Amino acid sequence: MINLETPRKHRMLIDQAHQVAMNMLRPISRKYDAAEHSYPKELDMLAAMIDGLSESGTAEGAGATGVSAEQKPTRKADDGGVRNGANLASILSIAEMCWGDTGLLLSMPRQGLGNAAIASVASPEQQERFKGVWAAMAITEPGMGSDSAALTTTATLDGDHYVINGEKIFVTSGERAGAVVVWATLDKSLGRAAIKSFVVEKGTPGMKVERLEHKLGIRASDTAVITFTDCRVPAENLLGSPEIDVKAGFGGAMATFDNTRPMVAAMAIGCARASLDLTRDLLEQAGVTVDYDRPAQVQSAAAAKFLQLEADLEGARLLAMQAAWMADNRKPNSLEASMAKAKAGRVGSDVTLSCVELAGTLGYSEAELLEKWSRDSKILDIFEGTQQIQQLIVARRVLGLSSAELR
To answer: For the chain, how far is it from start to end, CA to CA, in angstroms?
Structure first.
């Protein structure tokens, strides 16, 4: 049975993540927001610490790397036992880190979204080979919109290599990462089933970072446009099976998104909670006390609004925990992952903007981080599938309709 209380085994990890967020990320948050595209060198030491914990076996879920679809639960599903594993640990620690700074979390070495793709799709041999690689993920293309299956980047087998041609945009950590997981089609005529992912290592001839984007938020994180021109990639760098199974459809990408969407939800939750924590303090300094023992309608308008925002955020947090728990226990969680992403993305933007309003001039100025958090949170409602796409996925799952039947 699912229990949405924070598992005791993860509490030390969460406390450590909170300390890192407060003492390492918060102090440099404004610095790297202003110095867009500058690499946060302070993170190298933090990455080394995480590597050390991972090697000692004490940091399960300390990074945003996801969990392999091949991994099995430690207990049988029919014995009543449950597993609180790396997915749940990841979203809890990610939320704490984003309480510090979302852009800096996305800049963490060896913790890219491509690592989640490797964990979800790669064979055991590939996971061992790419262990320790910092991998970005490249799936979005110009004119593609939110339909991941509409990508046009091609991968053509030529001897013992695949030749990749195409352009990818909005690649998080595209310049800094040591490799990029590129989604490309082996045969456009076969639709979604022919889409595969490839690990393209930095420096591979034919891969070029064209430019870095200037963004509204998460400025500490580099976001790149990357082109691939006759880029030759070893055949063994195709993640998972090279076989095209029309019946399996878009399984590889969906398995990846089922892991990463709850993580993005956790990012939104952490950023929003930071806004609420600061706003509560600012309201108290202004003489407005939020009383949890009295109904909202008999309190001030500011306190009533604050209570509503907290309730919305708690709903998003529970949905994210449910999606991660289901992944840990090898239960299909595509519906829950999209519900968590949709709820948290929308609530994150609502909470951070509302906190700017509640704090008045302090919220809009750079005297506090509220205005920054409102900028950072917007992308969390967009990438890894927009709000509208998540609602469409949820509707398909609930109604039992295919993508062709409900568009």
So the answer is: 35
Query: Are the CB atoms for 110 and 133 separated by under 8 Å?
Result: yes
Instruction: Indicate left, alpha or beta for 213 from its phi (over 0: left) and psi (-120 to 50: alpha).
Output: beta
Q: Is the pTM for the entire model greater than 0.85?
A: yes
At residue 127's C-alpha, the angle toward residues 125 and 131, to 5°, is: 120
Q: Which residues pair with 177 in a beta bridge?
A: none
Residue type, 7: P
376 has a pLDDT exceeding 50: yes
Q: How far apart are CA 43 and CA 61, in angstroms?
A: 18
Cα 295 from chain centroid (whole Å): 36
Show the domains of the chain with their CATH numbers.
8-126 (1.10.540), 135-237 (2.40.110.10), 251-399 (1.20.140.10)
Q: Which of 243, 366, 384, 405 is catalytic?
A: 384
* Gap between the Cα atoms of 300 and 153, Å rounded: 55
128 is catalytic: no
Mean pLDDT of 155-176: 97
pLDDT classification of 180: cutoffs 50, 70, 90 = very high
